Amino acid sequence: MKSFLANSACNGRPPKNLRARKYRSRPKLVQRMMSERDVARFLVAPQGYGKTMLALEYASVVSNFANTFWVNCQSPCFLRDLDGGVVASTLSLLGGRGSLAIFEDVPFLGDGRAETFSRDIDTLLSDGWEVVVTATPVADSLGDLQKDRICIASKDLLIDADEIDSAGSAGFGDCDRIASFVWGTDRDADALLQGLKTAGTPAELTLVEFVMLVLGEGSIEEVFSIVKGMRKDTLRLLEECYPHLGIDLIEERFKARSMPIGKIAKACHASIGRTVEGATASNRDALVSRLADLLVRHGMWQRSCDLMATLCSRKKRAPWIENVQDDFVRAGFPACIQELFESSGLDGASLSSGMALAAARRLHLLQDSAKSAYFAARVLDRPDAAACQRIEAALLVDECAEGKQRRTAQLVLEGDACSGVAAQDSGLHCAARARLLEEKDLEGALGALESCSGESLQQPVLLEVARAARLARDVESGRKRERDPKALHRRANALVARAIALCEKKSEPTVYEALLHEAVGFEAVSNANLSRRRKVERILSGLNAQREEARAKRVLSDLPPNVVPLRAASAQIPLLHVRLFGGMEVRMGGEVVDEKAFQKHKATTLLAILVLHRGKEVPRSELLDVLWPDTSSEKSVNSFYSLWSLLRRALVDERGTCPYLAKHQKSYMVDAHFVKSDVEEFESICRMLTFEEPEAETWMEAFARLEEDFACGLLPSESSNAYIARLRERFKTRLADVYVTAADRLCDVDEPRAALWFAQAALDRFEKREDAFCALMRAQMSTGQRSLAMGTFFECKRFMKEDLGMDPSERIMRLHRRLLDEANGGSLVSA
Description:
There is one protein chain. It is built from 41 helices and 15 strands. By secondary structure, it is α/β, with parallel strands linked by helices. A hairpin with a 5-residue loop joins strand 9 and strand 10 (585-588).
């Protein structure tokens, strides 16, 4: 039981897991900790606030880590020793007066354990020790027991004005003045989100924090509407101890630190369901849908779709999409809701006419004619589609399709559907008449639209007015012949001005108002105030940007797979780098993916197998044989699907998607455009040493790289998988081949000293290879080390006779004879 505490001794060096970490000096806080060294100092704040780095600086300043014990309280061994009552007594035996004990990340302790720990602290203090404790606010259970303590809390740890200036930043609010945000990397900032899944945190508190981080900002009333029965005490605790949430109980509002939805989802994907059920009577899908509704109300269109895509189940997305899709289109954000629609698998035969027509509208706005016509044609094919839906779908098909589909659409416009809907929707009737007339009689088409009553000028009639205005503009510009083009243009502008005037009766402009302006220009009809005009311009600018992005994606999808640079440049996806030699490490965009994210060891094995195939498809049957060689087919298939889903969740990027893994029917692969590994670098170095011209300095750098990063072997801890074991031996053999080849080639160009390094490493690591003995003997002879060369020969001869029962090869015998015959050991030796 004493070994855990004994191993916590720093012995003059920082703890192993912190040796590579650099801290920013915080002299004011260190001075405060040093003001009373005979009482316990508590650093109490959420993760990411710099508690550990402050404790690290204090230990460095006070003792330079001599007589310092850094106790990891998240280890179960700490609770074991605490329950055994040996913490203080063991530490007292290991260190004396003046020693420093740092209890890092103390978990929540029940009453009994808290009293025991408090007595241990008092015992150490009475023995002349210094004690520092770090904990999160919800785990700080010793406040009432250690009344004389110095407590440095969350707000004390916020970066002050002087520190912000030194960081080169200004204008930070309280929610931004967190150490990991100002000084840390993305990985440090992500640590704050780990609090969402910390064991022992009350479900209500976790849920409120999750809601505020998702919404970003809003009113406390909105949070109450989500978390029913939320207690005031919870809000007061969050306001005092969680400044990154930016809670202001006087104004009853909050403005939290902005966090990408993908990162929030990744941190709490596995636990949020249990949290919701523990704090409310709701479930995860219902909570996510309500939060997405609030984001839509706040105009955070993309964020709402990101939330639904990452945390709501697919079958629950369709009702939400159907409820809000028109709001997205009116606001000018068709792209994000269309992406959510497509990612949800809502392209099946069961798609309703309303959903299909809405998809066709969005794609028409994004200028994707082929897809728009596809969904609109689906509406025409459905006998249960309403007459007004068929008319609108026919208008879209007529504009976006060719050939048979367009003729079908024109028959719908000409047929009974027009007269049938006329009594219910005169606007659609006028739009259909205008479309039928526009090719031969644009004047008549304008007349049909002019006959619309004001109430009828709604979408899609507004789109038809904009279309007619563009046609009239083409006529005036001379691209089409017409009897009186200027008169047509004036009539079209007047019609558009009338439509815009009706649109301006609404408080906020819509995408339809923007498209009308786009058709004729602002100067032609606009009487709007400057503020409204700017809003319309923003809608048009945003829509054009979405169109460009959608067009780029279409071009990208049509490219052959070997066009790597354009794909990588257009995708803007962080590179995933997988290290396999010496142990697995996965980095996404330069940041290490926590191994806990994979949950199961076989998930990392699956990733390794796919990476080793370097972007080539691997049949599912082959993967099953490798991962579960002794398991029945049906059981292994079910296990594989579970493992595949787990791996995809572990590799979700900031957008909540997994672009690194791909599935093609019954085969699986990594996308080589976005996934790289050290295997590729290993192969590149091997090719250089085998085929390129020898250059001693460059090759010695390559040798150092091989020794440092690749000599430990492929996934050395993966001992149970036969496939990985075979590959490990194959790479080991290749490394030996490269060492021997490089040594011989360096001797060929009279660089024997560099050759010695390669040859000696080959023999040290792969002692049962005759060619390694030959390479070393030749290098030794070339550098004048004749006695060593003779010893190498006799060692090879013994190995060949005793271990293999064979005579040495003619090559090494030739080297031996030359060694005996030649006296000039510095001359070039060839074999």
